[in-house]
Design goal:
Strand order of the largest sheet: 1-4-3-2
Number of domains: 3
Radius of gyration: 23 Å
């Protein structure tokens, strides 16, 4: 049975003969150290934490603790740590941050149980939290802004349910790895 290294190297040579890989790229496959790297496990094992730059620690702390109901771990003059499941994140005071929504779609999504979803949406609306997008994805989602304009989402589902929905929808051009 061939090793991963041998299989990839053999494939690369075939692509080179077909003119699809240049000499510079082929050098990588003849370099023993580089080829050995292909057999190594990834060193990154999970997302560790996120840090959000905020303009007012008290306001942000109260939002994440009292509105979203996240578990605070500690708070200090210029920051706070929260726990969400097994994931932790930091609020960090940064007076250079310009408040307001970023113009792009980057956002952070929090998981929520189906039975809690609509009550949380109502809680956010009653607190005057602004929504920034209607849901067009599979599963219940609500998109909203935190006090500094970070784009957030509460979402019912998991990566497994999202992939399954993609497969059921028959999305074109999707390459699945799971």
């Amino acid at each position: 049975m061939s090793s991963i290294k041998e299989t990839i190297t053999e494939l690369a040579h075939g692509l080179h003969r077909a003119g699809l890989i240049d000499e510079k790229t082929m050098k990588y496959f003849s370099d023993e150290e580089a080829a050995e790297d292909m057999n190594q496990k990834p060193m990154i094992t999970h997302a560790n934490h996120y840090t959000l730059a905020v303009t007012d620690i008290e306001r942000s702390f109260n939002f994440y603790k009292n509105i979203l109901g996240l578990k605070p771990l500690c708070k200090w003059l210029k920051g706070a740590y929260f726990l969400v499941g097994d994931f932790w994140f930091c609020l960090n005071l940064d007076l250079n941050r310009t408040p307001g929504p970023d113009p792009h779609y980057t956002h952070f999504a929090f998981g929520i149980a189906q039975e809690d979803f609509f009550a949380m949406v109502e809680k956010l609306k009653k607190a005057g939290v602004s929504s920034f997008k209607e849901n067009t994805s599979p599963g219940d989602s609500y998109y909203f802004l935190d006090p500094d304009g970070y784009r957030l989402e509460i979402h019912v589902g998991s990566w497994q349910s999202r992939i399954q929905a993609f497969k059921e929808l028959g999305r074109e051009g999707v390459e699945y790895f799971v």
